[in-house]
Structure formats: C-alpha cells, structure tokens
Amino acid sequence: MQQQSDKIIRLQGKVQHYAWGGAEFIPGLLGISNEQKKPFAEYWMGAHPSAPSELISSKGNQSLYEAISYHPVTMLGEKVYQAFGELPYLFKVLDVKQMLSIQVHPTKEEAEKGYDAEEAEGIPLNAPHRNYKDRNHKPEVMVALSEFWLLHGFKSKAALEKLLSEVPEFNVFLPYFKKAGVKALYQLVMEMGQAEVSALLATLVKRAIRLKQEGTIDPSHPAWWVAEWYAYQPEGADIDRGIFSIYFFNIVRLSPGQAIFQGAGIPHAYLQGQNIELMANSDNVLRGGLTSKHIDVPELMKHTIFEEVVPEILNGKTVLPGETVYPCPVPDFGISKIELNSGLSYTSRAASLEICIVTDGGALIDNSLVLKRGEAVAMLPGAEYTIYASGPCTIFKAFVPGGSSDVE
C-alpha cells in the first residue's frame, strides 16, 4: 500500500523553444533567466515520449513516461489504463508571440488510417513530410492567461459574402462562392499556383502594412494580422496563401479566464497571447499555411469541416468553492481552474493522474508541500489532498473525467 506522501509528487516539465515563442513569459513563470532571449514557446507537462516530464522526489528523479510504463495501473488508475493504455492528455503553457500555422486535426479513426498508411509506405516518424506521428486524435482546449487572439472555424455565409464584396482583391471570387460554396472557394485558393497567389495578394499585403502603421485598424481586423505576419518575414519572400484563411476564418478574442474547445476538423490558428492548453496526447497536425513546416493541402482539405462556425467561448462552471471547470466533450481530458485566497481551501481526491500548476501566487498542499508560481505537482489516483493559500492563488488542474480512484 502506498503512503499518501508517495501519491503527491513534484513535477518538472519540458520547455520547447519553437521560433514563434516569446522570450519573457515562460522564463518569468518558471523563475529562470533567459539572457540570450531564446524563444520559450511551450512548457510541456505530461508523458509524451518526445518530451516527458520528470517526477522529482527524494528517492531520485524519474521520467513520467517511464513511471507509467513500469507501473501503469498505479500511475493511471485501472479505468484510465483499460481505456487508453497511457496518460491520455498533454498539458501545456504557451506563449504565442508570432502566429502559428493554419491547421486542422484528424478524428481518431482517420488518424489511425493515416498513421497505418504512412507506416506501410515506410515514411520515418521524424520525416519532415510525415503527417501522422501517432494513431490518436488531437482535440484541445485552451484557457487564456492574457488577452488571447486566434482564428477558429469559417465565418458565416453572409459574413463571407460581405468580405468578398469589400476586399478588392477578393471581388473576383464572389460569383464563384455564391454558386459553389465555401469548400469550393477554399479549395480554389489553397490549390492556386504560388505565382498567382503572390500576384493577387501583393497589393492587399502592402495595404495591410500601411493601415497597421497608420493605426487605423486593430486586431479584430484581418489586415492587422497580415501586417503582423509580414513584420517577421524576410524581404522578398513569397506571399503565403495562409492569408486567405486569416480573412475567411473567425477572429476570436478571449479575455483572461475564458476558454475555447477545438475538436477534429475545425480549422484554426493561434495568433497571439499566453494560454494554458490541454489536449489529447498526440502530435498529429495537418497544416495549410503561415508556416515553414510541411504543408499538405489535399490532406488538410480531406479533414476540414466546411461549415460556418459560431465560436463558443467558455466561461466555465463553478463546481466547488474556488473551482471552475471548463466542460470538454471528450473522454481524454478535463480541466479546471482553482482560485484560492486566505481562508479558502480546496479539498479533493484524485480519480486519475492529475497534474496541477500554479500560475499566480503560491500554495501549500497538506501543510507539507509548498508550491510557488510556475511549479507543478502530480497527484496519483487515490491521492487525498487539501490545498491552502495565504493570499491570491491560481492553479490549473488537468485530469481524466471519470477516472478510477480504486488504486491503493
């Protein structure tokens, strides 16, 4: 039988230095210096084999991936192990300074087909042109830590008609859109030759840069993001066809504490800001622009939902004093925000492997484990714990809904 103290373990994540990341937020969160101004894009907390977190204890450190491999039922709980065979989520902190690629994630069924097909073709897992790195889907939820901007799904038919009428470079597409619809329109621009894309959008890009410099547009306008993208591109670079998506997709602004869920088939792109992100444990991304990585337009088209989307902004639901849960329509993961102050504590029993990270203030767990801002902890199934705070404190918790807590 495990002692209670063995079920609550400090966790140290892994930083990913992708080029689009900022240089200050994540180092500030983690309390580390970054004199070289390296980009700190993501902080991973989970058991993904490419960058597993470390369990930190007096008995020595251990990879979370290895710990789960050696003791799956103890680490995950019986129900989670039987359902998934692994930790089914990956928990992250993101700092988006430069916008991310236009992308879509496949369903689990399509991911299995795509992975098996690429395996049969003998495409190495680390090949730049590989689309499917695993057999899993990649639904994701994000909670804004700052003002956060993203693209999410196609605009309504009426909004697209208005756009095609008002943007001079897009006027030529209006009759075709009215006749053939959004899928045909998107396929047309995504399959257009590069020379034609550059010729069509050159004036649009110049105008966008001028309008942003003049201060006559703000981030709610697509041109603002076009100008933002080209602030980081080399002189004379080809014009990216991802610009069409900036105009055709909904531009969404989230305030701190607001969330949005993105399921399979919803085209999207993060634009700017900091967030907490939780996703299925997968790295399957189909890209369509605004990136130097592999773009596969036919595969992107195959998995995209070509329907108008009204973005659903989640404010969360209070389930316990101090705890707000953001409902997600998948069995792989759940997320909640715990906000405490002096006099208010939070008591729970882990029903799955839970990961908690402090994003503001500090916390005390069971009067024995102190967590400062940026520090994380893993709660093993069956762990009973109480979190206290002497002042304002914010914690985000990742878990598996309905997980088993029958592990001793």
TrEMBL record:
PROSITE patterns, per the entry: PMI_I_1
GO cellular component: cytosol
Residue stretches making up the Phosphomannose isomerase type I catalytic domain: 8-155
Catalytic activity: D-mannose 6-phosphate = D-fructose 6-phosphate
Record has Signal as a keyword: no
Cofactor binding: number and manner: Binds 1 zinc ion per subunit.
Catalytic residues as annotated in Swiss-Prot or TrEMBL: 287
A biological-process GO annotation: carbohydrate metabolic process
The organism's place on the tree of life at top rank: Bacteria
GO molecular function: mannose-6-phosphate isomerase activity; zinc ion binding
PANTHER family cross-referenced by the UniProt entry: MANNOSE-6-PHOSPHATE ISOMERASE
Full protein name: mannose-6-phosphate isomerase
Organism: Hydrobacter penzbergensis
